[in-house]
Write a structure and sequence with these properties.
single chain, Beta-Lactamase
Length: 132
Amino acid sequence: MSLNLADARRIIAAAERKAAELKQPMNIAVADAGGNLIAHVRMDGAWIGSIDISIKKAWTSRAFDIATKDLASHAQSGSQFFGIHASNDGRVMIFAGGIPLKKNGQVVGAIGVSGGSGEQDHAVAEAGAAAL
């Protein structure tokens, strides 16, 4: 089971609404069950440097089936996953804003959001995830 384009559009629309509510333009990416990008939106005024980060947050969340903010806490010096961000050719993001997406308890994709603070990115990702 995986997400499709209609799912991705619905998730992105919900995330965009939250970003607008926060008055923070964001980059929002949705990946399928294989970690492949389905759709991406760069809201007007969102940083171009965050395009890549949002896509990699979605990939990271799917690759490890964990929210990137939770992975970050395990990736600190002295923790079990210290240095993980350097794996997978630097594709792993350990900033808040990536969340695995589940249907019936099974991971079917992920959302990645970048462009604000970590708290804002995570809140926008949660709003997108809730639309699934």
